[in-house]
Write a structure and sequence with these properties.
Strands 7, 9, 15, 16 and 18 form a five-stranded antiparallel sheet that branches. A five-stranded mixed sheet has the order 8-17-10-13-14. It is mainly beta and 311 residues long. The two termini are 42 Å apart. The protein is 7% helix and 26% strand. A hairpin with a 6-residue loop joins strand 4 (95-96) and strand 5 (103-105). The chain is built from three helices and 18 strands.
Amino acid sequence: MVHERRVSLFLDGLEEDGTPFDTQPLAARLHDISEDAAMWVGLNSNGSNQFIGRMQDFRFYPATLTNREIVEVYSGVLPQLHTQPECRCPPSHPRVHPLIERYCIPNAVEDTTNDRVLRLNLNAHPLSYLNDQDMGTTWLSKIMSVQDLHEGVTITVDFANGQYQVFYVIVQFGGLLPESLLIQRRSLDTTKLQNGATTEQNWMDWQYMARDCNVFEMKNNGPLLRPDSVNCLQLPSDVSYSGGNITFSLLTPEPNLRPGYNDFYSTPALQKMVYATQVRIHLSGQYHTRAAGVNQGHRYYSISEITISGR
């Protein structure tokens, strides 16, 4: 792969760290194919150092391929990325940053280099930013009307690899917080069918949260009478105008002590309650934006990251 005065050699795709086999500088730029010039493959221009062996399937590409495209040529499959995999790196920075996928970096540089360019549009805020493990990205909803905020939005997280025990859910907001939130879960029915398969249960309520729990016809900070009880936690009456998080934890004594929280392995009901294959989060309402004179342009949801911890 050649770009300007740098050439990279790839053997059977990429190395384990996603880099070429070798990258070296060129003494001068290669002639453009549109110019009156010749190119030799397998020997020097003076005929020396002739390659001994066989060459098969020689291809010439009029554009510089990126590292992912090299893998696609070798394997037939373009490597997937978490966020917008159809967006590719430019030839000058052909390698996707191994830690921050929205950036691309050159070959033959350290991962910590500041020589990086954005792979994605700076104004892009796709839903995949919710769980890309990058606090520098944010998902934004559309600008919403008062009725839209009342109806809210629902976000579903699917555990693609199966069922897990989940112990807490953290929603990190980049803007104004919702006035109410419902977290639900779906798990596998452990009762096997006659053919040995398992079925998914219906959505089950996990936690209600609201500025005023009357919206759910529940008491503020109601008691948890059983290990698997569900209550409504009251959110603060006033919050900041930007940022903040909402945390749901199953095994902590506060703000309402859950029976069995400190004896998990001896509490079957609580063990069953933490299982999930999917988590669904419903947001509705919004702090501050109902006040008179508030610009409608502020009526949107902004989430930096959703963190679900389990095993």
